[in-house]
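Hi V.,

Quick status before I head out on leave. The structure for the redesign project is tokenized and pasted below; the design run finished overnight.
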């Protein structure tokens, strides 16, 4: 299950209630409408999905650039409330709040929304030339991080104070985007309508993509008899509608907000999703380390692989250890007095769940741990020198990283 699916429905209802109060449309009704909408949208087939995601992706990118531009206008006082500058980067606001807990929670929040970039490998199964397309898509992630994630953090931190009561917190029933808060403080009082519209369109794209990936993963597992066989049932056009409907139903977990605040639920879901992301990335890096170690033991040059992760191996050891560190530190404050068992469960439940599922899989399918000497590289596709030159010309950023190669 894609953990970042869970807060999406919860967030969408929070933003929808900005226009339509709960007295007019109850929360549970929004969830039913969202479920029906995405059930129809995601069973239209991969061609429709690809077409709509193309336009959604273009819209999101252009919208982000517009938000960055408006943030500059807000910062310099174009909306009438004066120059802001770097005021919110200083006391009593500052870039890091709440000490070590704030440090850990920021990374958990980032992980919950950044998780998913690794699923580019899923596209290999539907690509005509995965040896070319997957490396190209993987290399492009660097630029997305620079523009989207770092750009958003920079501009939101520039115009929105970290102490604003309108930001999402455990007691929140409704909340505003940092862009909305920043634009309103700068003098644009009706900015919430503009920003909320962009967020809801981005939500449609994000949830659509998550359902697609999760359902195709279930479908692939069912074909390999590693998931219940009914997930392999498809329509006449080959759409795995059972897996799609099952994947879509996870959004109903957001109805727990009826028994708690939307802010608390958001915190629980992002904690679970963020820690699950750390586990996934740690495992991916661990596999990378084992593959390199096995190749070295067999005297195989990793440059002959169809795609090689750039950089010295020490980068990946550091990545692995940093993920483990963040996984353990992100729930640090739950041990303070009084002990918060709900936050403890949300912060650390993914760890025993991972080991239970890993151990259960090994036991059920009777698989064994493969020693380094037994890892088989005989089926790998070697890159020719011509292909290597083409890939190097295509990615100048990777050329820089390759300087650090061992």
């Amino acid at each position: 299950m894609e953990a970042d699916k869970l807060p999406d429905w919860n967030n969408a209802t929070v933003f929808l209630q900005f226009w339509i109060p709960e007295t007019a449309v109850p929360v549970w009704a929004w969830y039913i409408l969202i479920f029906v909408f995405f059930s129809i949208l995601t069973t239209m087939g991969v061609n429709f999905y690809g077409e709509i995601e193309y336009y959604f992706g273009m819209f999101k990118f252009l919208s982000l650039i517009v938000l960055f531009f408006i943030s500059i206008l807000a910062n310099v006082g174009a909306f009438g409330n004066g120059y802001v500058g770097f005021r919110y980067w200083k006391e009593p606001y500052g870039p890091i709040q709440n000490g070590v807990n704030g440090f850990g929670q920021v990374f958990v929040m980032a992980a919950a929304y950044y998780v998913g970039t690794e699923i580019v490998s899923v596209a290999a199964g539907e690509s005509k030339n995965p040896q070319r397309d997957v490396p190209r898509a993987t290399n492009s992630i660097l630029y997305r991080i620079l523009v989207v994630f770092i750009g958003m953090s920079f501009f939101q931190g520039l115009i929105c104070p970290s102490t604003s009561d309108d930001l999402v917190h455990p007691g929140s029933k409704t909340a505003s985007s940092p862009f909305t808060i920043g634009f309103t403080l700068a003098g644009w009082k009706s900015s919430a309508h503009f920003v909320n519209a962009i967020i809801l369109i981005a939500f449609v794209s994000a949830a659509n993509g998550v359902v697609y990936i999760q359902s195709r993963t279930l479908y692939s597992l069912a074909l390999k008899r590693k998931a219940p066989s009914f997930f392999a049932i498809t329509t006449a056009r080959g759409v795995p509608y059972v897996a799609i409907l099952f994947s879509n139903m996870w959004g109903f977990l957001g109805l727990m907000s009826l028994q708690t605040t939307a802010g608390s639920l958001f915190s629980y879901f992002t904690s679970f999703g963020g820690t699950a992301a750390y586990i996934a990335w740690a495992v991916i890096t661990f596999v990378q380390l084992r593959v390199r170690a096995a190749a070295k033991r067999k005297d195989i040059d990793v440059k002959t692989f169809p795609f090689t992760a750039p950089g010295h191996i020490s980068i990946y050891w550091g990545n692995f250890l940093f993920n483990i560190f963040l996984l353990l530190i992100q729930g640090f404050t739950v041990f303070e007095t009084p002990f918060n068992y709900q936050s403890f469960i949300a912060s650390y439940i993914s760890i025993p769940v991972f080991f239970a599922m890993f151990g259960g899989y090994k036991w059920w399918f009777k698989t064994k741990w493969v020693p380094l000497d037994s890892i088989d590289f005989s089926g790998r596709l070697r890159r020719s020198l011509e292909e290597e030159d083409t890939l190097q010309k295509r990615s100048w950023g990777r050329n820089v990283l390759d300087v650090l190669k061992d």
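Above is the designed sequence. The chain has 14 helices and no strands.

G. will cover questions while I'm gone.

Best,
W.
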